[in-house]
Amino acid sequence: METPCSSFKFSVDAIDGSARCGRFETLHGNVDTPIFMPVGTQGTVKAVTPEVLKKLGARIILSNTYHLHMRPGDDLIAELGGLHAFMGWDGPILTDSGGYQIFSLAKLVRINDEGVQFASHIDGSRHLLTPEKTIEIQENLGSDIMMCLDECVAYPSTREYVEASVTRTSRWAARCLETRKTPAALFGIVQGGVYPDLREKSAQELTRMAFDGFSIGGLSVGEGHEIMMRTLEQTTIHLPKEKPRYLMGVGTPRDIVEAVSLGVDMFDCVMPTRNARNGMLFTRNGKMSLKQARYRLDSKAPDESCPCYTCRNFSRAYLRHLFVSGEILSSILNTIHNLHFYLELMSDIRHSIREHRFNDLKIKVKEMYDD
User: Which residue from 2, 147, 164, 252 has the fewest beta carbons nearer than 10 Å?
Assistant: First the structure.
């Protein structure tokens, strides 16, 4: 399962239905799967330090090629020792290619077979991002797992457009492979919109190439939960079992357990950190909005069954006070709790798969987060 030029290795050691536990090895450490990766888009997971992330059990984090290329610049980061040294994180780092951010944030975007031309959302400067440039940036950053440049199409899009996009994404993927020079892993990204045959076409074209793993992109872009899960199932069946599968940017607790049941190994999402800053906590009893006045005099812990620092030391009333007062500590404490919840959920998933009781956990989580 080791591909040429790569130090990356992946193995599966337990299965329960289509759900599976495994492990991948990188130059900066090993990671047990299924795994949730906290999002540190600009070289930081908002409101927490790398030390706190480690104490919470984070093993790998995600950063973004587009944002770091725009500011402070990948050349500067390389000169200062790479992203690990720059941000003080010595564990594995996965970097997204930046394609999604270009399509969602940048201005005056023009796509052709060469790459993507766009104007920076920061200062309006013009740039061209090619498959080759994407790999160069990620290698400058010192990523452990890199993503190919892909085109993430909007929903809905016509079949004709999506088919052309799949062809372009496959061509870009081959160019990314040809460009890679470091031992970092490289994942291909399966696209195809909500068209099952185009998902199959994309998967088949990419799996003929020597990628270390496969990402599933273009979901959670407005298609709705049922279509998303149906499309995910129609995609995973075409991906090799001996390589990891990464569902990009999808991450409610319900989404995660359903995706794990379809054989997905890796997840990232801004939801736990973004919701924390907006006063919403994930608990074992469902979501909790600290905006609600009923918590003003509530002396109980946010989640009485949770052992995280926040729940061991602070009340719902205090957390609500911090949030309505606009205190920075609100974001810190809420983020600690939400990340603990997500990382603990992934630990519970791994244990349940090994003990062949994953379906029971899946039912419980779906009942709690069925919205």
Answer: 2
Model confidence at 122, in pLDDT bands (50, 70, 90)?
Answer: very high
- Which residue type sits at 153? V
Question: What is the value of pTM for the model shown?
Answer: 0.97
Instruction: Label the pairing between strands 116-119 and 107-111.
Output: antiparallel
- 211 and 339 fall within a common domain: no
Residue labelled with tokens 């990340």: 339
Grouping H, G, I as helix, E, B as strand and the rest as coil, residue 94 is: strand
Residues 258 and 287 occupy one common structural domain: no
Q: Beta partners for 187?
A: 147, 213
Number of independent structural domains in the chain: 2
Residue 67's CB is within 10 A of a number of other CB atoms, namely 18
**Helix or strand holding residue 141 (H, E):** helix 131-141
**Which tokens hold the place of 72?**
């402070």
- pLDDT tens across 190-246, in order? 999 999 999 999 999 999 999 999 999 999 999 999 999 999 999 999 999 999 999
Q: What is the pLDDT of residue 5?
A: 64
Are residue 190 and residue 156 in the same domain, yes or no? yes
Distance CA(239)–CA(151), nearest Å, equals: 19
The model's pLDDT over 78-96, given as tens digits with 9 standing for 90+, comes to 999 999 999 999 999 999 9
User: In this structure, are 263 and 340 located in the same domain?
Assistant: no
Q: What is the pLDDT of residue 6?
A: 85
Active-site amino acid positions: 96, 268
Same domain, residue pair 261 and 349: no
- Residue 240 has a CB neighbour count (10 Å cut-off) of 13
What are phi and psi for residue 188, nearest 5 degrees? -85, 155
Q: Is residue 298 part of a domain?
A: yes
Look up the CATH number of the domain holding residue 188.
3.20.20.105
Give the span between the Cα atoms of 336 and 345, in whole angstroms.
14
Backbone Cα Rg of the chain:
20
Phi, psi of 54 (to 5 degrees): -65, -45
**Sign for the pseudo-dihedral over CA of 241, 244, 249, 252:** positive
What ranges make up the beta strands (E) of 160-217?
185-190, 213-216
Sheet (strand 266-268) strand order: 35-37, 266-268, 245-247, 213-216, 185-190, 145-147, 93-96, 61-64
